[in-house]
Specification:
The complex is a heterodimer.
Chain A lengths: L4 H17 L35 E3 L5 E2 L9 H15 L5 E6 L6 H21 L7 E7 L10 H7 L1 E7 L1
Helix pairs in contact in A: 2-3
Chain B lengths: L1 H7 L4 H4 L10 E5 L7 H14 L3 E3 L7 E8 L2 E8 L4 E8 L2 H17 L8 E6 L6 E6 L6 E2 L7 E6 L5 E6 L6 E6 L5 E5 L5 E6 L5 E6 L6 E6 L6 E2 L7 E6 L5 E6 L6 E6 L6 E3 L6 E6 L5 E8 L2 E8 L6 E5 L1 E5 L5 E6 L2 E6 L4 E7 L4 E6 L2
Parallel strand pairs in B: 1-2, 1-3
Antiparallel strand pairs in B: 3-4, 4-5, 6-7, 6-29, 7-8, 9-10, 10-11, 11-12, 13-14, 14-15, 15-16, 17-18, 18-19, 19-20, 21-22, 22-23, 23-24, 25-26, 26-27, 27-28
Helix pairs in contact in B: 3-4
Classes of the chains: A alpha+beta, B mainly beta.
Chain lengths: ~170, ~375
């Protein structure tokens, strides 16, 4: 099991925050349908018109979080990147979309899931740092849109990432 | 190639040595050129269908247990199969275009002589990049008649054909997020049926066409859910901290096999479609994704990582050793449980599993991947 211990600890607190901060699109029919979420904080409803690749999301304000092969663990060396984002979010009203990506190896659908899990892992760290889960949406592009399409270890390492998009 | 050589070679015995199955495993069949205006066109399609079917050894009439023939023209085909004594074992009239009539006759020949369902009338769909973006294509099982179903210029992936290829579910990014769309193949009507928060992907239409199984992350982790074909009534099946993906239905719709990396690397699990405890299927392989449950319920094909590359593996669902059958990925079973279609870069390939014979069926559409095959 790769259960991240803080997830459960912060789930209840984050839920409370999510409820408080719910604003533009208060349809919560998706969240916690079954009432039990073992390993994550339910995602908020999408904000109308806000898409990671759209013009209303600012990308590149924060450096991407990199991952090891076939891993969704936020490594200690990458943690400070997420902590910086958490601090920025606590001083801002802007919400965030985290997009997860993989390298080109492996099957496409598994990589979509892995990319989503990477985005969610970063989101869990933000939540553990005190950011409301209700402010953070996720999306996976799997192996699409690589940073470096050249192939080889260096390119693959660059492509295994989670990017931050600030909703304007 | 074996069958073609057998049909023209004067000495048959030399050709049988190139076949990896015993001669007795296959039914010897002669194809007499069909008469009528459409005879040559139908004969050509029929020959390819009976060859790819795998069940037959195409031989000259003198050595054949059965002879396939008939006449075709004016939008109809009178097909006939006779045995060695000249008795008619199949006689049937078909109407339609040349290709579809030939396909229907071929499947009837397979069913009459072997008792198995044929693949000639089935459809495939897949992802191709030929237009510059990932779009969904639909084609006959042999790759002919291919046409592009989507023109989203976005990312359109993970197609799943419903029974009879009447509808197709796929993952589309045109709304900015991966959402599940269902296309009515006959009318082209399309509806977005699942747009929950996060990522919604990999919908597999159930054998009865009424449900979908897919990955959704709305509750905070990528998990397997079952929904109605219109996306309603989502029921969560898995609860882990890992990545669950690529559910595939048992033929009776009662169970699913999917891939989960909750144990550290992606492995195969099976679970009741109504919920319950998942059970791991031990494969002996370190990376197992993209399972496809065979139509007879007995086998599962999947992608494994071996060395630096990826291979197609087959094993019994009940247990046993996984057998590597091809280099490539994304295997999917065809009706009858004899063939797989899988991807390898710029081509889709039809694999006759018992003989190991591989035939390229799709190429020239860019990078092609994620085939789905209708029953």
């Amino acid at each position: 099991m790769r259960l991240l211990p803080y997830v459960q600890l912060f789930a209840a607190a984050a839920l409370a925050l999510a409820t408080v901060s719910c604003k533009t699109n208060p349809k919560d029919e998706f969240a916690g349908v079954d009432g039990d979420f073992v390993s994550g904080v339910p995602l908020p409803s999408r904000q109308d018109g806000a898409a990671f690749m759209g013009g209303n999301v600012a990308k590149g304000q924060f450096p991407p979080v990199q991952f090891g092969y076939d891993s969704f663990e936020v490594s200690p060396s990458e943690l400070s990147k997420v902590q910086a984002v958490a601090e920025a979010m606590k001083g801002s009203r802007s919400d965030m979309i985290i997009a997860g990506f993989t390298d080109e190896r492996g099957t496409e659908e598994y990589n979509r899931g892995l990319g989503e899990r990477r985005a969610l892992a970063v989101r869990e760290v933000l939540i553990s740092q005190g950011v409301s889960g209700g402010r953070v949406q996720t999306v996976s592009f799997g192996e699409e849109m690589p940073i470096d399409s050249g192939g080889g270890e260096a390119a693959w390492a660059a492509n295994r990432r989670a990017e931050f998009g600030v909703i304007r | 190639m074996v069958a073609l050589a057998g049909a023209v070679a004067p000495v048959l015995a030399q050709d049988t040595a190139t076949i990896t199955v015993r001669k007795g495993d296959r039914v010897s069949l002669a194809l007499a050129s069909l008469g009528g205006v459409s005879g040559p066109a139908v004969t050509k399609v029929l020959q390819n269908d009976l060859d790819l079917a795998g069940w037959f050894q195409l031989v000259p009439a003198a050595q054949a247990s059965y002879t396939v023939g008939g006449t075709a023209g004016g939008g109809s085909l009178q097909g006939k199969v006779t045995d060695g004594a000249g008795s008619v074992v199949l006689s049937k009239t078909y109407t339609g275009d040349d290709r579809s009539m030939a396909h229907e006759f071929a499947d009837d020949v397979v069913e009459t002589l072997t008792g198995n369902k044929g693949i000639a009338t089935t459809k495939i769909a897949f992802v191709g990049t030929g237009s510059g973006a990932k779009e969904i294509y639909l084609a006959d099982y042999d790759g002919d008649n291919s046409r592009r179903l989507t023109s989203d210029r976005s990312i359109s992936v993970a197609p799943s054909l419903g029974p009879g290829a009447r509808n197709l579910a796929y993952t589309g990014y045109q709304g900015g997020y991966p959402d599940v769309y269902v296309i009515d193949v006959a009318t082209g009507a399309r509806n977005r049926v699942i747009n929950a928060p996060g990522t919604n992907s990999g919908a597999a239409v159930s054998p009865d066409g009424g449900r979908m199984a897919l990955t959704m992350s709305k509750d905070g982790n990528p998990e397997i859910y079952v929904t109605g074909l219109r996306g309603g009534g989502a029921k969560r099946l898995t609860r882990t901290s890992g990545v669950e993906s690529s559910p595939t239905w048992s033929p009776d719709g009662g169970e699913l096999i999917y891939s989960s990396d909750d144990g550290g690397s992606p492995q195969l699990y099976r679970i009741s479609a109504g919920g319950g405890s998942p059970r791991q299927i031990p494969t002996g392989q370190g990376y197992c994704t993209d399972p496809s449950w065979s139509p007879d319920g007995k086998k599962v094909a999947f992608t494994v990582r071996s060395g630096g590359g990826f291979s197609v593996a087959v094993m019994d669902v009940a247990g046993g050793a996984a057998r590597i059958v091809a280099s490539g990925q994304n295997p999917v079973w065809g009706r009858g449980g004899r063939h797989l279609i899988f991807s390898s870069g710029s081509s889709l390939n039809l694999l006759d599993v018992p003989t190991g014979r591989t035939t390229t069926i799709v190429s020239g559409l860019g990078k092609v991947s994620e085939p789905t095959w209708s029953f």
